Structures are given as C-alpha cells and as structure tokens.
Amino acid sequence: MKVVNQVNPSPERMQEFFGGKEDGAFVMVNLLKFKEKAEYPDGRETGLSGAEAYALYGAAVVERLAAVGATPGYSGPVTGLMLGEVEENWDMIALAEYPSLEAMKTMIMSPEYQAISVHRTAGLQGQLNIKTKPGALGN
To answer: What is the mean pLDDT of residues 59-77?
Structure first.
C-alpha cells in the first residue's frame, strides 16, 4: 500500500468526494503530519512550529463545525504504532462528525473557514482524511 499525505485535495478528488450519493452522517478521521516550522502562504515571518499553527486552526474550527451541525471528537498525539508499517508516523489524529456531506462542503466553502484555514496550510506537511460511517459495526 502506498501512502501519500496531502494538504489539499485535487479538484477531481473534491468532485468525487462531494459528488457521491449522500448517505447521511459520517466521521472524518484526520491523520496529521506537521511541518517542523510553520510556513504561511503569504510569506509572513513566524516563530510558530507547524503544530502550533495547526493548533490555532484547531481552536477556531470548533466554531465552524458547530455552525454546520458538526461536532469535534477525539484528538490527540500519535505515540506509537502496534501493527503495520509506515515510513514515518503521523503526529496527531483528530476526529470530526458531520451530519452530511453538504454540511462539510458548506463549512469548507465559507469565508469564515477560508480565513482560518491559512493556519492549517501553514502547519501541515500533509494528512490523510478518511471518511467513515458511524455505527457500522452495530454500535
């Protein structure tokens, strides 16, 4: 299995993801890898680490999630790998539950989200976003 961390999806991937059949609530699993030093797209100087820049985004995104009826879930640092192999482990995992694809799309397209996402871009080296269905094992 080849694993490729990315910061932003391609237009084709966005169309595929949001163009699919709507199937209700889902949990997004975010596997996050941070830059050693934050790098802002506008070139501003900063003493922030990538994790610190992402933390600014994380604190602000909670309000954006609530605005579309989504809720943050567990988040925490990755501290080890028991099974499998990867060249380099992720730094953090974060979960968010969305009521629908439309809710997520509305959030990420909003001007408020766009304003805070600069910290996400500055802090992330890459990530994986994995869409999961809640309660799939009968819970």
So the answer is: 96
Q: Are 36 and 49 in contact (CB under 8 A)?
A: yes
Closest CA to 132 of 86, 81, 97: 97
- CA-CA-CA-CA torsion sign (102, 34, 7, 61): positive
Q: How many CB atoms lie within 10 A of CB 27?
A: 19
- Give ∠ CA 63-121-50 in degrees, rounded to 5: 95
Pairing of strands 71-77, 26-34: unpaired
Residues 5-40: pLDDT tens digits?
A: 778 788 888 888 888 777 789 999 999 999 999 999
* Pair of tokens at residue 127: 């990530």
What type of residue sits at position 137? Answer: L
Total Cβ atoms within 10 A of residue 90? 20
